[in-house]
Specification:
Largest sheet: 6 strands, antiparallel
Bound molecules: zinc ion
Structural class: alpha+beta
Oligomer: single chain
CATH architecture of one domain: 2-Layer Sandwich
CATH topology of one domain: HIT family, subunit A
CATH superfamily of one domain: HIT-like
Order of helices and strands: HEEEEEHEEHHE
Shape: globular
Helix content: 25-40%
InterPro entries: HIT-like_sf
Number of strands: 8
Length: about 210
């Protein structure tokens, strides 16, 4: 069972004290971070001219040196069926649970045929429902960015309930800032998700 909001808060307090701030991530080094400090005030960055040519290829372009095709590196498989696999990060992160649903075949999101897209719709709905019904989960955000790696992968990000500032797209930033979830809690939740997903289709691998 995921931590209660009070347990999550206690985890933060244990790391940085009652009114302490978590360490600042290096957002000033991120090209995509949209704001910068100007004369002590946070301001939107100046929008530069676009690239002269096309964007550089993403990781695993055309299936060459593709992390997902090569077996996911350190990301362990949670569940699979014939065409889909569910993986978790190599270790717990700050939010209760983050999982990736990926096709086994090397293709991009928009390349799914109708049959595969229909199956994706069913699995993503089951998975979102299963994760949202875990105790103390406020919402599960389903995100396909695909800007880093070409191989189809969709993020399922469970945010905690009752933290009004850990919401929406910026909830993702808290995943790297919050101290990691205790490993035994995290593994038990992954097992529960895999077990329940396997009642619909495929098989649990954890
Ligand atoms: Zn691939």
């Amino acid at each position: 069972m995921p931590e209660s909001p009070e347990e999550l808060h206690a985890r933060v307090v244990a790391a940085v004290g009652e009114d302490g701030r978590l360490p600042m991530p290096p957002v000033h080094e991120w090209e995509i971070f949209p704001w910068e400090l100007v004369d002590g005030a946070l301001q939107p960055k100046v929008v530069p001219a676009p690239l002269d040519g096309p964007e550089p290829p993403r990781a695993g372009h055309d299936g060459v040196d593709c992390f997902s095709c090569a077996g996911d590196g350190n990301a362990a498989r949670v569940w699979e069926n014939q065409r889909w696999k569910l993986t978790h990060p190599p270790k717990p992160t700050g939010l209760p649970l983050v999982l990736w649903l990926s096709s086994k075949e090397h293709l991009d999101y928009a390349d799914m045929g109708d049959e595969l897209a229909g199956e994706y719709g069913r699995i993503s709905t089951w998975l979102c429902r299963i994760m949202e019904r875990l105790p103390h989960i406020g919402r599960v955000h389903v995100n396909r960015w695909g800007d880093g790696s070409e191989h189809l992968h969709v993020w399922f990000i469970a945010r905690p309930e009752r933290f009004p500032m850990i919401k929406g797209s910026l909830a993702v930033e808290w995943d790297e800032m919050l101290p990691p979830v205790p490993e035994d809690t995290w593994r038990a939740d992954i097992h529960e998700v895999a077990r329940k997903l396997a009642t619909h289709d495929g098989r649990a691998l954890v």
